[in-house]
């Protein structure tokens, strides 16, 4: 039977698995991000499709890290010469060369670190962004599904390129509840991806505090002094941190 409780059980199991099985990976990722930010770097977050929501979770939100820039396909229209119509096709993430166009429009510096999110880990834009990051000497953290990416027939996957892989625990195809006539319902990757993102933030903040330093964290703009606090921190990074639609 498919109902709320069926999905709740799936969700609970996925969350519990992430909180136990991925602690070490998230800690390794936190160490990379902390080292980058202390060196003046920016976390470059990139995802396509629904994975954009995990990149957005890392970007420009109350309680989140200030030096985070969300890279996205939308950038070629926001900051480049593409029209909005050019990026409406959901299959655009499979287009070769797209990641390079996004990369060229960003102010990416040697000390930056990448967090790249993709459930399948196999679409062209995702793999090419990871390749570009590695080629330029950046550390890459992947948030992906090991179950799904293992089932792909491709030459290279995001998980093959990343220095740290956080497994979101989603099944092949992402959705977890089997339907009587075939197919599945109830996606998992966004739920666990957002949790992984927040666990990563908590790990990095803890490292700043352990070092006796104030973590660069956004305050809610809807609290007294929030705008001024955020503006002071953002001033250090200028156009390197583009909040876009965050």
Structure overview:
The protein has 246 residues and is an alpha/beta fold. It contains 10 helices and 7 strands. The strands form 2 sheets. The chain has a 5-stranded parallel beta sheet with strand order 2-1-3-4-5, with helices on both faces. A two-stranded antiparallel ribbon has the order 6-7. Strand 1 (43-47), helix 3 and strand 2 (68-71) form a beta-alpha-beta unit. The protein is globular, with a radius of gyration of 18 Å. The protein starts with a helix and ends in a 12-residue tail after the last helix.
Which stretches are low in confidence, meaning pLDDT under 50 for 5 or more residues running? none
Which sequence of SSEs, written as H and E, runs from N to C? HHEHEHHEHEHHEEEHH
Indicate the percent of residues in helices: 40-55%
Fraction in beta strands: 5-15%
Strand order of the largest sheet: 2-1-3-4-5
Which structural class should the secondary elements be placed in? alpha/beta
Computed CA radius of gyration, to the nearest angstrom:
18 Å
Beta strand count: 7
Basic shape: globular
Oligomerization state: single chain
Largest sheet properties: 5 strands, parallel
Quick overview:
The chain has about 250 residues and is of the alpha/beta class. The chain has helices at about 5-20, 25-40, 50-55, 75-80, 100-105, 125-135, 145-150, 160, 190-210, 225-235; strands at about 45, 70, 115, 140-145, 165, 175-180, 185.
